[in-house]
């Protein structure tokens, strides 16, 4: 979760929303991300085992989703599922809540931190840190409207396209890391 880096992405994805809708999207995306990460923090390995997928498979899926989001940010004029979701106001759930905020990296990091926690106090510390991180992310998106009023639409469009490239690169990085683990361990799935 990147509170500062998500602000321009948030602005790009909510460009068709008014200030009130943007605040609602910020709130909803934060809640969705919190629920997803808390679920995986407390029972993530069991969830993955139940459906028979590895953490690397989750990482590949997240990487592919980020590639798609990056492409759609680079090509905002095309008719796409992201554009339709943005116009309909559902962008808070997907892609903001997940996979941008509650992506494979945040999920895996939280799962590992919980697994390394030795006692209840350490577990509560990890969960408390997660709450603080979510609060900071929410505040960043909540006050992104201030940034949107300072920038012209063409500047937001330029930033969204540059960030589309970066989001796509993050997706490629997630894919590469998962494939590297699969090759190293000799396991594919």
UniProtKB/TrEMBL annotation:
* Major subcellular location class: membrane
Q: How does it sit in the membrane?
A: Multi-pass membrane protein
The record's annotation in Pfam families points to: MarC (PF01914)
Q: Name one GO cellular component term.
A: plasma membrane
Query: Could you tell me where this protein is found in the cell?
Result: Cell membrane
Q: Where are the transmembrane segments?
A: 25-44, 50-71, 92-114, 120-141, 162-183
Give the protein family: Belongs to the UPF0056 (MarC) family.
User: Which UniProt keywords are present, listed alphabetically?
Assistant: Cell membrane, Membrane, Transmembrane, Transmembrane helix
Name-wise, this protein is UPF0056 membrane protein
InterPro entries annotated for this entry? Answer: Multi_antbiot-R_MarC
